[in-house]
Amino acid sequence: MWPGNAWRAALFWVPRGRRAQSALAQLRGILEGELEGICGAGTWKSERVITSRQGPHIRVDGVSGGPGTVIFPGLPLPHLSCCIHLLSFTSGILNFCANNYLGLSSHPEVIQAGLQALEEFGAGLSSVRFICGTQSIHKNLEAKIARFHQREDAILYPSCYDANAGLFESRALVQPGTETRGPQREAQNTLPLYPEERPGWQYSFLICWSPGQGRSPGWLNDGSTLTASLQALLTPEDAVLSDELNHASIIDGIRLCKAHKYRYRHLDMADLEAKLQEAQKHRLRLVATDGAFSMDGDIAPLQEICCLASRYGALVFMDECHATGFLGPTGRGTDELLGVMDQVTIINSTLGKALGGASGGYTTGPGPLVSLLRQRARPYLFSNSLPPAVVGCASKALDLLMGSNTIVQSMAAKTQRCDSQQGRLGGGETWFRSKMEAAGFTISGASHPICPVMLGDARLASRMADDMLKRGIFVIGFSYPVVPKGKARIRVQISAVHSEEDIDRCVEAFVEVGRLHGALP
């Protein structure tokens, strides 16, 4: 007999190191197999290294290109509120895949505001917001965001991905016995990333009060009643209805919530209405949609969505990451563009695209909702505060937008201007679409700076993007899991600081590369 635990020591002591090595070898084998599968499917995502500031003309490590420009203080340009001039340099690569819609990522006033905030408030807070991570600039930016969107309050997050997670996973107190459990409950809480992953499943995002509970849809405009309802947002008694092509961060956020989930077909208002009718049995219903869909370049029919929401007593949530700052007459976004600013209850958006391009996201909407998120949103409670430099840059970007419509109008000119004498659309998104479609390409979406060149095959999209770079055009192929399988594309994004010559050069390269790879006859 082995005395005491000696037999255990004899059993485990000698082979422990070998077992650890064996486990690591097993892990390596699994990981290498996964990586080989990604490469074999043509969906490998490499990271190109930029060695300059973000802008329409950039420098890329190891790649030479044609002439480019760098912006410095000096000569005035019509689309910027400050004076700049252009300095030519060689090895310029045309960048057509940044979310830098207004060209503010390297705007001199935005950069200076970041430097000033860095100097005055330091590099960071080393804290979450509720401990010692809230500075005056954070509160000022939140107030400015709320004014910009004409909402009651706003809350900052490290990213809009976190804002979407924070909104949907935040749990209100539920009375004992109201939460169902078991396999059926768990199945309802699983939302597929793309529709084909769960054929026949139904999902949607829409919150409203059931007419059977004695209140008309008009109560939703009553701030006092809204306060009470939002304090119990998205419990197991509620329902959320989502467009099937919503951003992955919305889908992931909904996966975390306890509400019943419905999914309606992309932009299909008849299907949304059917799901709303089905969801009348739930206490609250929330319709969730992107304002502008980032991979397809199309815009949600907000007027119809808000009409259905009113008819069935629902609230509307909208992700505005690819609309804030440049859609609508003053850049307020999709709800301003379509005239429904007073009908969209909750907006999530980003500081990392048109508003300076650094980082950060936010939720803006009713004051009680924002107050509840400060108490319960885990990405807010457990993430460090936004760095002061990021806050300073975003705040200045909003100042530029709220101080003048010049920059927004420049973006509108890029997407709407038509030169009748030349018989062509004037150098923006519509001009790009027109020439690309005339060449034989299929371009998804409409009336948005996002212009996806639909190719279908992931390897084709990747190889064409590589050959575009050789011709001085920086674009990226998008494939699964960023977009559904079989719908690979190269997403082109037009910026206010792209010239007509830039766009012409991009189209010419696409035509040449498309013919080289058999995408065009």
Q: Keywords for this structure?
A:
single chain, 521 residues, four-stranded mixed sheet, alpha/beta, 17% strand, eight-stranded mixed sheet, 19 helices
Query: Beta-strand level of the residues, as a percent range?
Result: 15-25%
What is the average per-residue confidence, as pLDDT, rounded to a whole number? Answer: 80
Give the beta-strand count. 18
Number of helices: 19
Q: Rg from C-alpha positions?
A: 25 Å
Sheet having the most strands:
8 strands, mixed
> Low-confidence spans: pLDDT under 50, at least 5 residues?
66-91, 172-232, 417-427
| Global shape | globular
Q: In percent, how helical is the residue content?
A: 25-40%
Question: Class by helix and strand content?
Answer: alpha/beta
Descriptive account of the structure:
This protein is an alpha/beta fold and 521 residues long. Helix content is 39%, strand content 17%. The chain is built from 19 helices and 18 strands. The strands form four sheets. Strands 4, 5, 6, 7, 8, 9, 10 and 11 form an eight-stranded mixed sheet that branches. Helix 6 runs parallel beside helix 9 (248-256) and helix 10 (269-278) runs parallel beside helix 11 (302-311). The longest helix has 25 residues, at 16-40. The chain is globular.
Map the helices and strands.
Layout: H1 6-12, H2 16-40, E1 57-58, E2 66-76, E3 83-95, H3 108-121, H4 129-132, H5 136-149, E4 153-157, H6 160-169, H7 183-188, E5 207-208, H8 223-230, E6 239-243, H9 248-256, E7 260-264, H10 269-278, E8 285-290, H11 302-311, E9 314-319, H12 334-337, E10 346-350, E11 361-365, H13 367-376, H14 378-381, H15 388-403, H16 406-416, E12 418-419, E13 424-425, H17 429-439, E14 442-443, E15 450-456, H18 458-470, E16 473-474, E17 477-478, E18 488-493, H19 500-516
Parallel strand pairs: 3-16, 6-7, 6-8, 8-9, 9-10
Antiparallel strand pairs: 1-3, 2-3, 4-11, 5-9, 10-11, 12-13, 14-15, 15-18, 17-18
Helix pairs in contact: 3-15, 5-15, 6-9, 10-11, 17-19
